[in-house]
Model the fold of this input.
Amino acid sequence: MEGQSVEELLAKAERDEAEKLQRITVHKELELEFDLGNLLASDRNPPTGLRCAGPTLEAELRGLARDNTQLLINQLWQLPTERVEEALVARLPEPTTRLPREKPVPRPRPLTRWQQFARLKGIRPKKKTNLVWDEVSGQWRRRWGYQRARDDTKEWLIEVPGNADPLEDQFAKRVQAKKERVAKNELNRLRNLARAHKMQLPSAAGMHPTGHQSKEELGRAMQVAKVSTASVGRFQERLPKEKAPRGTGKKRKFQPLFGDFAAEKKSQLELLRVMNSKKPQLDVTRATNKQMREEDQEEAAKRRKMSQKGKRKGGRQGPGGKRKGGPPRQGGKRKGGLGGKMSSGPPGLGGKRKGGQHQGGKRRK
Amino acid sequence: MLIKGGNANATVTQVLKDVYALKKPYGVLYKKKNITRPFEDQTSLEFFSKKSDCSLFMFGSHNKKRPNNLVIGRMYDYHVLDMVELGIEKFVSLKDIKNSKCPEGTKPMLIFAGDDFDVTEDYRRLKSLLIDFFRGPTVSNIRLAGLEYVLHFTALNGKIHFRSYKLLLKKSGCRTPRIELEEMGPSLDLVLRRTHLASDDLYKLSMKMPKALKPKKKKNISHDTFGTTYGRIHMQKQDLSKLQTRKMKGLKKRPAERKTVEKEENKSKRIKKN
Done:
């Protein structure tokens, strides 16, 4: 008996629940697709009921709309809510429908001067700790900013250095130096920004819209204007004290076909001598400079690649590429564009190279 | 941007005014008539969009060949991306339906019904265009009581029925309210006429997302064909000496036993010293 009444109660409770939910449930053959970020619902069911409806189209449409809206509202009410200033607010997810952009994706900015230099040299940012131990106050303080660890400006005693004027105000000097540093930093930042903007909109003719240009820019603009004539600037008038522009004239100069026979004989014999000699000719300083610069760049590129890939692959071998170490070779001038292997280098370098950093890729003059 | 053509009639003008009312703070309605034909010459539209910095536009006109014409379009980088020409068959304006309206600037809910919207490419682009046009600004939170109106698009028999209803939240037994709708706003019956859709590569270019906005892939999670989600956990090496096993009370060392063990240890230590 009791069991039955319990069962009855449970059944009744279930029926009540179903009734309550009945008011908000809607039956559809195909589920709707929701994009709650956009408050959007798409109903894929074919509107069969509406096709036959004639005069009652409006009512049918309204019924369909009511059902669809009910489903959308059900979904929205299930989102996580919070109370903001006595109103119930639901947090919407990101919209999932992909819509085309209004404006194109912004172009990547050009590197600043420091970034270019750091790339070339292979300097990477050192990881710094957030807090630094401050002896004076005996606590951990931030590295810079409000209440920083070693604050220059808060010192009450500054020693006058030996070579300084005894009547000079050292505190004022410090403040002045800081102001200058800040101004210099600001100037560099603005210059970097201007360079970035200039790259974004490559302007024509080198003219500045507001008319404030530096002497070099004006000079460049003037040069360009001079050269853009039919005779490429040859007959342009010059101001009384203006110097002739450099860089005019032929770009390459060839020897006359026949002229100085002795000089020609000499140069031909020299060429034959170099070609026949067993030892290669090398300009020491040029070679070493080029070498050093290339090494720096390779290192930097490799380290950058390692830091990107090394995190994923973890613990690969360090760059095992060959180093062009060893003392620079002796010899006179080097002729021709001989790239690639030297015939008489130290044995370790010749032959097959591991690691792919091939020096012969670059041509050398 | 809502623009009137050279020969816009009363219906078309009223439609533009109603849509402007729906999109109030984010739209601009041009009062003067502009004698242009969007499908032939797009330069004037592009000029307007550059000046007003709007990328969505609606152009209304009327002539004998195309009565009650409405062109909806969007731009990418101030050049026309997509344009769809719709004919207005039936129109009931905001002021013809006499009941209370909702405040300006509310974000509407959009519902698209009918399988036509996914079948043809034209309809798909039209759906995306309508979503773009009528959704409001993207917000992260929304006040649940502030969901006031819903725009309902039905594709039926080659026509698109556009209705807007005001939402009435009624009590139901549980937390989610029951919805009742009341027709509020403009209702249009539209017919698809000409389209000028962007070429595939231009469309792809416009959909390009910068890397920062791309959804980040969660690592170490995979799904199989049945819908089961698998996760990978990388464990550190376990120190087996510190492993805690089940304690058997019977094997516990009794005090007497512990004493003998200690004695033996001391003995062994003494031996070692010697």
User: Anything to note?
Assistant: Residues 2-210 of chain B form a domain with the Rossmann fold fold (CATH 3.40.50.10480). Chain B has one domain: 2-210. The longest strand of chain B covers residues 79-92. DSSP finds six helices and 13 strands in chain B.
